[in-house]
Specification:
Mean pLDDT: 85
Radius of gyration: 25 Å
Strand order of the largest sheet: 1-2
Low-confidence stretches: none
Helix content: 40-55%
Structural class: mainly alpha
Shape: elongated
Length: about 120
């Protein structure tokens, strides 16, 4: 049996999702009217059924920043959009001092001069 707190939370989450979807539909429709249906990164063109694979990316990563001139938007395909957000996450991790990939430490040519000198003797 659900308690009143769970019901309030469920309703709040549902309302937030609906508001987000409505906001997204509005700026998506505007962006699709403003820009050619081409991915801004890979150049793939979208028509008909596959138009749903073209997404609106917020350049400043703020989904609430939707100026009417569309200056904060770019159309990206699903793949390029995912890639852009993954890159942003990696940048944030580096800035936060997260784990960074270390450079290779093995140098296969480290002792090359001495090996060549031995062969020339």
């Amino acid at each position: 049996m659900a308690n009143a707190g769970d019901d309030k939370l469920s309703k709040a989450v549902l309302e937030a999702r609906r508001a987000s979807e409505q906001r997204e539909q509005t700026y998506r429709e505007q962006a699709l009217k403003m820009y050619p249906h081409i991915c801004g990164r890979c150049g793939r063109e979208f028509k008909g059924k596959n138009l749903s694979e073209l997404t609106v990316h917020h350049r400043d990563h703020n989904h609430d920043n939707n100026p009417p001139d569309g200056s904060n938007w770019e159309l990206l395909c699903l793949y390029c959009h995912d890639n852009e957000h993954q890159r942003q996450l990696e940048i944030q991790q580096i800035k936060a001092g997260g784990e960074q990939r270390s450079a290779a430490t093995h140098n296969p040519f480290a002792d090359l001069k001495s090996l060549l000198d031995k062969n020339n003797d």
